[in-house]
Amino acid sequence: xxxxxxxxxxxxxxxxxxxxxSIDYVNYIYECPQPDIVIIDGxxxxxxxxxxxxxxxxxGGKLIYDNWMQPSVExxxxxxxxxxxxxxxxxxxxxxxxxxxxxxxxx
Length: 107
Fold this sequence. Notes:
Blueprint: E1 2-4, H1 7-12, E2 16-18, H2 22-27, E3 37-40, H3 46-56, E4 62-66, H4 78-84, E5 89-93, E6 101-106
Parallel strand pairs: 1-2, 3-4
Antiparallel strand pairs: 4-6, 5-6
């Protein structure tokens, strides 16, 4: 299951749902009961997506957060940082781009 707000992208990629507004975008996760993996990689609504993912992920599931604590991209809210850093996690850095990083949290 995948959701995006970019019509051109959703038409070009098979299986991507075109969100009809912010609420649809954030709540589309409920189309897949208890996913094993959720990837947060959108340009907006990240904190809202994290909140929904934490409600839906199966125990032991993975939440992959692209651009985690990355200075060149949106800064996570203090609430999101506090909530997620309590979970076991690994941060992967891009070698050729010193500030690019992705975090994988076990929920």
